[in-house]
Write a structure and sequence with these properties.
With 420 residues, this protein is of the alpha+beta class. It is 65% helix and 7% strand. The chain folds into three domains: 80 residues, no CATH class; 64 residues, no CATH class; 241 residues. Strands 2-3-1-4 form a four-stranded antiparallel sheet. Strand 2 and strand 3 form a beta hairpin. The longest helix has 65 residues.
């Protein structure tokens, strides 16, 4: 077996004569170099992982808080990573950056805000205006209007020969003066207004006109016509949208407006509404006159009963006096006083009866010449052109309402984000 030359193995050969420490230095440097490289690569790998985790955490936080973080604070390219020395996650620069991103809010770019605002405006304003333009421009059917103006009048009541109404029913017959009469007329006008918008007029007009047929004509579009098989409540709501009465409080004049899909239908409905309203006013006037006459008759009956009672008392006194005169003597002064009292009562009763008869006659005269009546001084006419719907005004109104809703929505969203 050949001998091994110890000098040929620089690693395992012993150091000669105290020179072993100088031969071991290269081996220690190599091991240290390898150890340092391993630690450097491990630190670099940990730094890369920490950096990626930190970017992911910040990206998630920015998405949740509607923020974005500029990328210039992060060396994300490979060239920048190769040029920079590895840094640990505990460096003062990283700690400062983390504190800054946690404490400060960085708004989104104006371009993204503007884009979202434009999209919301397009949905909330542009879409409704587009739909309204298409409907009122191409689909909405023409509606004709028949208008009438009317007022309610009352005859001036007669007065007594002395220039004033008889007592007992003076306020009722005179109507309380011109101001009270005006208030009464306004009250009747408001009654007519309520009657035209009530379900009772639908019942009263049904024998004359079939409203369901008139408001479902082929000329009407799907949105404007009365729904098929509409219940009474829906019919009443639709009626109120097509027929309206406005009262001027200063003049007491009422204006009736009836809309329909043909000019003839609008005129027929307006004529029938006026006729029914006039019948209502006449009925109320007749009831008022009847109440006046009934009250006057009650006063006549009461006065007549008082006269009869006074006559009976006086006759009974004379009969009793003739019987007592033969039996015992009574003082003449007492007899005269009793007779005078009974005669005075009879006189008062007869006067009251005469006044009641006068009042009854006056009430009858008032009932013949006085009463509320409705007069249409502007009668419905056939419309020459369709007045409704006002297409440009409807589109403009849609734009204004949609804009208001959009602005309010923006304010609500901004306030909500501010308080979150």
């Amino acid at each position: 077996m050949p001998e091994t030359n110890p000098s040929s193995d620089p690693v395992n050969s012993p150091a000669p004569n105290g020179g072993g420490s100088e031969e071991a230095k290269p081996l220690s440097a190599l091991e240290a170099y390898r150890k340092d490289r391993a630690e450097m690569f491990a630190a670099r790998l940990k730094e890369v992982k920490d950096r990626e985790a930190m970017k992911e955490a910040i990206r998630t936080a920015s998405q949740n808080s509607s923020l974005i973080v500029p990328t210039k604070d992060f060396p994300v390219t490979q060239e920048e990573e190769d040029e920079q020395l590895p840094a640990t996650s505990t460096t003062p620069e990283n700690e400062l950056f983390l504190r800054r991103t946690e404490s400060q809010t960085i708004p989104r770019p104006p371009e993204r805000k503007l884009q979202k605002t434009l999209i919301s405006a397009l949905i909330c304003i542009g879409l409704p205006v587009l739909i309204a333009t298409l409907y009122y421009g191409f689909l909405a059917s023409d509606q004709y209007a028949a208008t009438a103006q009317f007022s309610i009048h009352s005859n001036t009541p007669p007065t007594a020969s002395n220039g004033s109404a008889p007592s007992g029913l003076a306020s009722m017959l005179a109507g309380g003066g011109s101001s009270s009469s005006m208030l009464a007329v306004l009250g009747e006008m408001f009654v007519v207004q309520d009657y035209v918008g009530s379900a009772q007029i639908l019942t009263d007009i049904k024998p004359k006109l079939d409203l369901r047929t008139l408001y479902r004509r082929p000329e009407a579009d799907f949105w404007a016509r009365l729904p098929a098989k509409a219940p009474d409540k829906t019919l009443l709501t639709y009626w109120r949208s097509m027929v309206q009465v406005q009262v001027d409080n200063s003049t007491g004049i009422g204006q009736l407006t009836v809309k329909a899909f043909t000019a003839q239908d609008a005129k027929d409905i307006a004529d029938e509404v006026l006729a029914l309203s006039e019948g209502l006013v006449n009925k109320m006037s007749d009831r008022s006159q009847k109440d006046t006459i009934d009250l006057a008759q009650k006063e006549v009956d009461a006065a007549s009963a008082r006269v009869l009672k006074a006559h009976e008392a006086l006759n009974a006194f004379f009969l009793q006096e003739s019987k007592m005169r033969d039996v015992t003597g009574r003082p003449a002064t007492e007899v005269l006083a009793t007779r005078d009292r009974l005669n005075q009562e009879l006189n008062f009763a007869e006067q009251a009866y005469g006044a009641a008869l006068t009042t009854r006659q006056a009430a009858s005269a008032v009932a013949m010449v006085r009463g509320l009546y409705l007069e249409a001084f502007v009668k419905p006419q056939l419309a020459d052109f369709a007045e409704f719907p006002s297409r440009s005004e409807c589109v403009l109104l849609t734009f204004l309402v949609a804009s208001l809703v959009w602005v309010l929505g923006l304010l609500v969203v901004a306030a909500t984000k501010e308080h979150l």
